[in-house]
Design goal:
The chain is an alpha/beta fold. Helix content is 37%, strand content 17%.
């Protein structure tokens, strides 16, 4: 399929999950309503301050896309916080997609746990009926210590509650965790608590990326840990991943560790492929013991 520039006015940069590479990106909000996580530099520029895009502009863009891109089957609602919109506005957007892009089979969006706090299961079910079938939630960690240090504004309980609410509404969930989020001090706690989180919520998809520093993120992360933060080297990251996977008790979760930040690419279904994935991680640990790679070198990603 040839690439078409969508008739959409984007406020750059625009971010999306790797699995949305072939989706039509509709920017229904700009930036992130929380925008305080110490590790994140995606929306820190002044022109990326959070604000909803005018509803009339979004609906007009959907209509234009329908005219020139009628073949679209997947839509991703950007930026980082589309689910912060009201149920009424989200419903209006989804109804427009259904009207003007009738071949669309999946609409997805990033979602903060707090986005679902004021939305009932019945309201989420309505959004699901209108086409919202998948949310991507950056849980980052199941450890309350790590979440507090990151200034995430969430806890194990609030994240689990949101994921279970989406599950009850029939919306699929893709959960993201950050390998190395707790540094050396909280590595085991981070892995074990994160495993408890996904065991409790049984997400349909699980992905990991590696903590990496850009644009002052290292200073912000260290400040969140009161200066007591020692990044993991490659061996430490692989050992933490081994502990995480070992502790999972998942029934049918598609697992991916293929973000550009990951030195070790892992793909499988948990728990069917758990033994194979652990074996691959063990081989990586053995390799890392022979080739010491400090965390700082990962900044090239």
């Amino acid at each position: 399929m040839h690439y078409f520039q969508p008739p959409v006015d984007y406020i750059e940069p625009v971010f999306r999950p790797p699995s949305e590479a072939d989706s039509l990106i509709l920017q229904v909000t700009n930036g992130c309503s929380w925008n305080r996580c110490t590790f994140c530099d995606m929306y820190i520029d002044d022109h990326k301050r959070f604000r909803p895009k005018p509803e009339s502009d979004v609906l007009a863009e959907i209509e234009r896309c329908g005219q020139v891109m009628p073949w679209v089957q997947r839509v991703f609602l950007a930026d980082g916080d589309a689910m912060a919109l009201s149920v009424r506005r989200l419903s209006s957007i989804l109804e427009a997609i259904r009207t003007h892009l009738p071949q669309v089979r999946r609409v997805s969006a990033y979602c903060l746990p707090v986005n679902l706090k004021r939305k009932s299961v019945e309201e989420l079910q309505r959004l699901r009926e209108l086409g919202l079938t998948l949310i991507y939630m950056g849980a980052e960690s199941g450890s309350d210590n790590v979440l507090a240090a990151f200034d995430k504004g969430e806890t194990f309980e609030s994240t689990a509650e949101a994921l279970l609410k989406a599950q009850k509404a029939g919306i699929k969930r893709s959960v993201m965790l950050i390998n190395g989020a707790g540094g050396r001090r909280y590595s085991d706690e981070h892995a074990e608590a994160s495993a408890r989180l996904v065991n409790l919520t049984q997400p349909e998809y699980l992905a990991t990326l590696v903590l990496f520093f850009r644009r002052g993120a290292e200073q912000r992360v260290r400040a969140g840990y009161d200066g007591d933060f020692e990044p993991l080297d490659a061996e430490g990251l692989f050992r933490e991943m081994h502990l995480l996977i070992s502790a999972t008790e998942l029934k049918q979760t598609v697992f991916r560790s293929d973000h550009v930040s990951n030195a070790l690419v892992l793909k499988g279904t948990l728990g069917r492929d758990k033994a194979r994935l652990l074996s691959e991680i063990e081989a990586a640990v053995e390799w890392a013991q022979q080739h010491h790679i400090p965390m700082r070198q990962q900044e090239r990603f």
